[in-house]
Amino acid sequence: MPAQFYSLLNSGIWHMQESRFASLREFAASDLATQVISSQLTNVSSDFLDSYFGPEQKAETSGGVAIVPLKGGLARGVSPVMRRVFGIRDTDMFREDVEQAAQDEKVKEVLIIADSPGGSVDGIAEAAHAVASTRKIKPITVAVDGMLASAAYHIGAGASRILAGPSSIVGSIGTFLTLMDYSQAHQKAGVAPVIIKNKEGKYKAAGAFGTALSAEQKEQLQELVQGLHDQFSGFVRAHRPFASPSAMQGQALVAGEAKRRGLIDAIATSSEALAIIRERL
User: What are the b/e assignments for 84-97, b being 16+ CB within 10 Å?
Assistant: First the structure.
């Protein structure tokens, strides 16, 4: 697995539904993932990737409606192979699709079709801003077919309307960082990590492999996670002021309960949402 993605899984900060994050880490550690990613797929054509893993997610415009997919885990700057193997939506590519639809005069309305558990925090605020900015130019609707959780909800909260299918899962508004403490295992093995850093850097290398966090390091990381969460929850409150605080404690809700607590506007599938938009146009 590419070192950048491995590092992200093991020490990145996430807005993601926890069970899906666990599944992602489990798959990333599997022999199948290792075999696929260690193969020569990095040099193959996009046509081969399309035939093997399915087409790349991209916006399509029909009848004045731009349909923008937001499906799978979310991450920024991910290679084509990683996007296909792990089913990841690159947040920069999503943002560009939304911005292009906003500026296209032929597009009268934007429909985001979502099924995402969330993902890495990197690039999420920018994608959410693109959605909220588009709302000032033309209607933009999010239709949930499955899941709109955590980072995906952050992105969708700025839309004109959020619709979700009856069995869809919505919410999981929260932020977390997972670090693995292997210090005791190293101690039992008689191995001691040696970290040399600048004298002022008491927070530098916090959570480095084989080390335990100091109280100050843990407090600083807590402040970092809380700051990113405050950005997330503040965005939700600004764009959905009627959302109940009781729905913003990290839990995921079925669509009906999400509607009662103000996280979505109506119960409808993406097909029904598209039909409503076409009738309006």
Answer: bbbbbbbbebbbeb
d(CA 215, CA 104): 52
Q: Any idea what the Cα angle at residue 117 is, between residues 113 and 119, rounded to 5°?
A: 110
Indicate the pLDDT class of residue 193, thresholds 50, 70 and 90. confident
pLDDT tens-digit map of 143-188: 999 999 999 999 999 999 999 999 999 999 999 888 888 878 878 8
For 87-117, how does the pLDDT look when each residue is reduced to its tens digit (9 = 90+)?
889 999 999 999 999 999 999 999 999 999 9
DSSP 8-state class, residue 54: -
CA 154, CA 125: separation in Å to the nearest integer? 8
Q: What tokens appear for 236 in the block?
A: 């939700």
Q: Which two tokens stand for residue 205?
A: 């290398």
> Smallest Cα–Cα separation from 168: which of 141, 142, 148?
148
Is-contact 161 277, C-beta < 8 A? no
Determine the residue type at 8.
L
Q: What are phi and psi of 16, to 5 degrees?
A: -155, 145
Longest dimension (CA), the chain: 70
Amino acid at 167: S
